[in-house]
Amino acid sequence: MKDRDRRGHRGHHRGYAGEATPDTVVIYGWHPVREALQNPKRKLKRLLATENALKRLADEKVETRIKAETVRPGDIDRLLTPDSIHQGLYLEAAPLPAPAFGELGAQDIVLVLDQITDPHNVGAIIRSAAAFKVAAIITTERHSPAATGVLAKSASGGLEHVPVISVRNLGDTLDEMGESGVTRIGLDSEGPATLEGTAFGGPLALVLGAEGKGLRQRTRSLCDALARLDMPGAIKSLNVSNAAALALYVARAKIPA
């Protein structure tokens, strides 16, 4: 992946909330910060904490790994939006390291999200990705979640286990994947074959579109195959986060980790 596309969580409210840069993510709130502090892959830069939060970390035997700056709650309030619930913890850290497409192994799966905007859905997808050992999640810089703690809460700690990479041009990224030997399977309710019946191996990219709109035309054209998830019941389509979990289950059955 080109360096300029290795964005991680970038910009204001990208993934977590706060003022971030391509080299820095901002994490706040008890559970997200605790998970980050306990993740040895997460490089920490700056930690702000209230006295109560520091005491709670100590009581739960959570190592801060870097020296914390003791502050008042209002000092953190001023760094975030008014609706942000930080619980006395604010962390600046580096994005998680993401694998280059050419370095992906035969057992690796990548999720590609084509303009999926609902933070609850994306958070649930991240959690499923962590459960199924996804190597990375690719999102678009535009038309991706702008919510703050909603995404982190929905992900339930998954953000510390799966790199999330934001790219400017999804089509170019899919092109680069193909050139690197990644098989690109787009999920489409009208796909010619079921995902179970589609031949593929790893490394694999599962490409999911937004609810209602589905995959954009160029995204569809850059997939090696389109596949559907057949539903035997009266309801023939699933919420995108549920579809992602089911697709990952099928893919993992065909590509053991």
From TrEMBL:
Coiled coil: none annotated. GO terms for cellular component: cytosol. The keyword tRNA-binding does not apply. It holds the Pfam family SpoU_sub_bind. Keywords: Methyltransferase, Transferase. One of its GO terms (biological process) is RNA processing. SMART domains: SpoU_sub_bind (SM00967). Residues 26-99 form the RNA 2-O ribose methyltransferase substrate binding domain. GO terms for molecular function: RNA binding; RNA methyltransferase activity. PANTHER family: 23S RRNA (GUANOSINE-2'-O-)-METHYLTRANSFERASE RLMB. This is 23S rRNA (Guanosine(2251)-2'-O)-methyltransferase RlmB.
